[in-house]
Specification:
With 284 residues, the chain is mainly alpha-helical. It contains 15 helices and no strands.
Length: 284
């Protein structure tokens, strides 16, 4: 019982920090749906070129709330798939704080963050370019899909109440999953997670990328500490921290019901992180 209480107290601050991002994203979507639907369509038509760049830069901020907001905005059709992937790839939550605790290695920090941003921009722009050539669809309808899923349609008539309703639903989901994940990581043990990577394996970046999908800040901390101690290569650190998008992926699966698209996005995320990590491991 004590451990359960300790786990709740551990994840509660992280969950609460996401609330402003969740609410802000939903408030924006509700406003665009009710007050400026034509502006939303125009923004989607012209923002895909710059969205990936802006998303990559925002992801650098050491706060996984941006990945949460990006997932919500993508599910609502406000941002493109390329923008979402750019945010996910560049997101750095607890890892950046750990790195900043080593001022003697700030050069490596800048190099790591620079590589993440470049990877995020390239992948984001490429995905949007391919998407525009293959098909186009009415992203605005996604907002109606969200409302149909959570039943907030009964509150429509304003923007505040539906936004609060969406936020509450997703926050509860995030909190429950974070709680279960934290219990799981504790049961497995951070030492065992680290041991999975401590081998002279050319595919180490692939394992790191897989580990990065675990939506728990402890994983990004483990990856960062292993890199700083020489346990994993620079390429492996990049791969693991590129797939470590906080709880953004959880929110994506909760709010975006197109399973096929979600799997494609995860596959692109994994492939980009793994291949770039392997390449850097070979040349560095």
């Amino acid at each position: 019982m004590d451990h359960i209480v300790e786990t709740i107290l551990h994840i509660l601050p992280d969950a609460l920090r996401m609330l402003p991002f969740l609410f802000g994203a939903y408030l924006l979507m509700e406003y665009m749906e009710h007050k400026a639907p034509d502006r939303l369509k125009n923004m989607m038509a012209h923002s895909s070129g710059s969205g990936a760049v802006v998303g990559a830069l925002l992801g650098c901020v050491p706060q996984c709330g941006f990945s949460v907001a990006a997932a919500n905005l993508f599910a609502g059709g406000v941002v493109s798939a390329g923008t979402l992937l750019a945010v996910f790839l560049s997101t750095s939550d607890e890892a950046l704080f750990v790195l900043l605790g080593h001022p003697d290695r700030w050069g490596e920090i800048l190099r790591l963050m620079g590589c993440k941003v470049v990877l995020a921009v390239v992948v984001g722009l490429l995905v949007d370019h391919i998407g525009r050539k293959k098909h186009g669809h009415n992203e605005h309808e996604h907002i109606h899909d969200l409302c149909g899923e959570c039943g907030c349609g009964q509150h429509h008539g304003g923007v505040l109440r539906p936004a609060l309703w969406h936020t509450l639903h997703v926050f509860v989901f995030i909190f429950v999953v974070m709680f279960l994940m934290d219990l799981g990581v504790h049961a497995i043990g951070e030492d065992r997670l680290a041991a999975l990577l401590l081998s002279d394996n050319p595919l180490q970046p692939v394992l790191a990328a897989l580990m990065g999908f675990i939506p728990n800040c402890a994983v990004s901390v483990v990856l960062t500490e292993l890199y700083l101690s020489g346990g994993i290569s620079f390429g492996s650190a990049l791969a693991g921290l590129s797939t470590s998008a906080g709880v953004g992926l959880l929110v994506l699966w909760r709010t975006h019901k197109d399973t096929k698209t979600n799997l494609k996005l995860m596959a692109i995320l994994f492939a980009a992180a793994s291949l770039s990590g392997i390449l850097l491991q070979l040349v560095m």
